[in-house]
Amino acid sequence: xxxxxxxxxxxxxxxxxxxxxxxxxxxxxxxxxxxxxxxxxxxxxxxxxxxxxxxxxxxxxxxxxxxxxxxxxxxxxxxxxxxxxxxxxxxxxxxxxxxxxxxxxxxxxxxxxxxxxxxxxxxxxxxxxxxxxxxxxxxxxxxxxxxxxxxxxxxxxxxxxxxxxxxxxxxxxxxxxxxxxxxxxxxxxxxxxxxxxxxxxxxxxxxxxxxxxxxxxxxxxxxxxxxxxxxxxxxxxxxxxxxxxxxxxxxxxxxxxxxxxxxxxxxxxxxxxxxxxxxxxxxxxxxxxxxxxxxxxxxxxxxxxxxxxxxxxxxxxxxxxxxxxxxxxxxxxxxxxxxxxxxxxxxxxxxxxxxxxxxxxxxxxxxxxxxxxxxxxxxxxxxxxxxxxxxxxxxxxxxxxxxxxxxxxxxxxxxxxxxxxxxxxxxxxxxxxxxxxxxxxxxxxxxxxxxxxxxxxxxxxxxxxxxxxxxxxxxxxxxxxxxxxxxxxxxxxxxxxxxxxxxxxxxxxxxxxxxxxxxxxxxxxxxxxxxxxxxxxxxxxxxxxxxxxxxxxxxxxxxxxxxxxxxxxxxxxxxxxxxxxxxxxxxxxxxxxxxxxxxxxxxxxxxxxxxxxxxxxxxxxxxxxxxxxxxxxxxxxxxxxxxxxxxxxxxxxxxxxxxxxxxxxxxxxxxxxxxxxxxxxxxxxxxxxxxxxxxxxxxxxxxxxxxxxxxxxxxxxxxxxxxxxxxxxxxxxxxxxxxxxxxxxxxxxxxxxxxxxxxxxxxxxxxxxxxxxxxxxxxxxxxxxxxxxxxxxxxxxxxxxxxxxxxxxxxxxxxxxxxxxxxxxxxxxxxxxxxxxxxxxxxxxxxxx
Length: 849
Description:
There is one protein chain. The relative contact order is 0.09. The termini are far apart. The chain is an alpha+beta fold. Strand 14 (398-402) and strand 15 (407-412) form a beta hairpin. The chain is built from 29 helices and 23 strands. Helix 19 (551-558) crosses helix 20, helix 26 runs antiparallel to helix 27 (777-793) and helix 26 (745-771) packs parallel to helix 29. The radius of gyration is 37 Å and the shape is elongated. The model is unreliable at 1-5, 7-13 and 105-109 (pLDDT under 50). It comes from Bifidobacterium thermacidophilum. Keywords: Membrane, Translocase, Transmembrane, Transmembrane helix. It is a multi-pass membrane protein.
C-alpha cells in the first residue's frame, strides 16, 4: 500500500506531496472550516414543528370555544375540546419523526477512512477529512469525499447511486471520483478536492434536505371547509351571543341574573356544530392506522398524508435499477460471434467457454466477470493455464490472456475491438477492408442482442506476432493484426420476478408507467419490453439528451414516451415537473442519490429498502424489503383511505350545514338555541364519530375520482338543510302547541331535549344513506348505533349528564308527530336533490352535444 515518497506529478496534475498533509496543515484547514462535515439539521426546528401544529385555525376556533364554555362553569359542555390534544399530538409526533429522518440524511457510511498524513497511514472518521488530504480508496469502501486519483491499482467504482448507470467504471490516474461512489475492486490513492457541502453528493442532496410537507386532497378539502367556516363563525358567534342575550331580557338582565352563562353556552353550541372537529381527528387517526397496517407488509410510511396520494396517482415513474431489476448482473449465455453454430465459428463451445472463464478470472474480477465465472463453473469450467495476462483497462476497454503456444484471447467492448483490429491490420500493411468485413456481421449481431436487453462482450481469438513474446505483449499491449471473432458473452441485469405482474396491475388500473434511467435507452427499452411495461405494444424509448429543455414542450413530448435513458439527476426532476405541468399526479421510485431530486419533486416518492440513506430520507414511502410488488397494496390502502374518508366526510359536513342553518335561523327569529353543546356531543358520537371510525376502516378498493369536496358538499346540503328546517320548525311550533314558556328553565330544557331527539333521528337517516348498501354489516351498524342512542335515554346517569329527558303525555305525542314530519322533510329534500342533479346533468349533456 505504500506510495512513492516525495513530490510527483501525475497525468498533467500539479506537484503533489505524497507524504500527505502534516499536523499543522490539517489544523489550519480545520480552523478554516475546510472539513468534511455537513449541516445535519433540517430547515425546521422542534419549536417550529410544535408551533405549526398547535397554532392552527382549527385549534384556535375549538380552543377559544372551549375556554369560553369553561369560563361559564359548564365543564360538561366543554368535552369537545379533547379533540385538540389528540389531533395535535398525532401531528407533532408524525412531523418529529420526519425531522429525525431528515437530520440523519447522509449518503456516506460512517466507517473509518484511511488517509496518508505526514508519511503515515492513519484512520480517521469521514467527517475529519480535510481539503487536500490523501485518502486511500479500497474495495468495498465508499469514496468519502470528492477527489482526484494520484495512483490506481485497478480501481473500479460503482457510481450508480450518483449517475444511475448500473455498470461499474474503471478509473485511471487523473480521473475525478465523487463521494457516494463505492469501490467494487482495486485500490487507489487520491487527493481530496472538495469536502462537506461543496461535494458533488452534498450538492445533489441539499435540495432534498428542505422539509416538504405533503398535503393530501382530503386535507385540502378539510382546510377549505375550515377556511370557509372561519369567515362564518366569528360574525355568527357574535350574532348568536347577542340573540341569546336578547332572549333572556337583554345584557343588563343577563348579567344581573347570571343568564349570560347559558347564552354563551348556547352560542358555542352553534359554533362547535359548524366545525367538523371529529373529521380532522379521524383523518389523522385513519392515516396512522393505515401506516401501521402497511408496516406489517414491510412498507414504511414516513409522511402519513402520503398514504392516500397513490389513490390519485396517474403517472408512475420507475427507476430501472433496484425497481424493475435488482441491480445484480446475470451471465445469460456464451454464443458464437457471427455464425449460427460453433462449427462455423471454427472452434468448440467448451474451448471458447474456457477462454472466457480465464479472461474473467482476474485478481479482482468485476460483477460481470463474477457472473460469467459462476455460469461457466456450473457447466464444468475450471481455472486454466495462462502464460500472461493483460488486465482490463478503462482506457483500452479490453483485457487479454496469452496461452502457451502464442494464442491470444481478447475480451472487451465489441465496437472498440472491431475498430482496434481494423487499425492493427492497416498498420501491419494487411487488407483492413477484409478485417472490417469480418467484424461487420458480428457488430450487427451485437446490436440485435443489445436490442433484446443484453449487455454484450466480444471474445476474439488471435496469435502473437512473429517474434513477439508474451512479456512483450503485456508490456506493450497492442492488438495483433490477425483476428477471428470467436464468441459473444451475453449478460443482463436480473429482473425482479414480481415486476411484470406489478406493472400489469398498474396498467389495468389506468396508471401510466414510465421507466426513467441513467442507462442506455436501447438496453432499458429491451428490459421494459421483457416486463411488458406497455403490454403488447413496443415501448417508445428516447435518449434524455434529445428531450426538449422547455417544460411545456417536454410535457407534450412525454405523452408519447415510455422509456427515457441517459437521464441526469436534474433531468429526472425536470420530467416530474413537466408531468405536473400536464396536471398529472406523479409517483417516483428510486434507490440512488441521483433519484433524490425527482423523489422530492414528485407527489409521492417511493424508495427501495436497499436505497441510499439520502434517498430513503426524502421518500414518503420506503419498501423495506425492496419488493416492487408491495406497491399495489399501498395503492389499495390509499384508495381505502380516500373512498372511506369521503363517506365519513359527508357525515361531518352534514352537521356543519345544519349547525350553520340553525344558527342563522336562531339569530333571525330571535329564539333560544335549540340544543346544548353536550347534546351535539352525544348525537355526534353515535351518528357520526364512532360509526365514521368503523366505516373509515372498512375494505374499499374504489378508484379515486377527482372532485372530493364537490361530491361531499352535494351530499351534505340536502341532509343538512332537512335537519336545519326540521329543528327550526319544531322550535317555533312546539311551544305554541304545548303551551311551553321558554323563559322557564324546565320548559326550555324539555324543548331542547325534543329538538336534540329530532337531530338524532335525522342523523341516523343520514348515517343510513352514507353506509349503503345496508344489506350487509353496514345495516347492522346503523341499527346498533340507533339502538344505543335510544337505550342511553333510558339510563338515568347518561340522560342526566347529557341533559336528555323524554317528554311525557301530550308532549310525547307531539314529539312523535314532529319526528314523522321531520323524516318526511328529509325525504323530500333528498328527492329534490336528485331531481336537481338530473336536470343539471341533462343540461350539461345537451350543451356538450
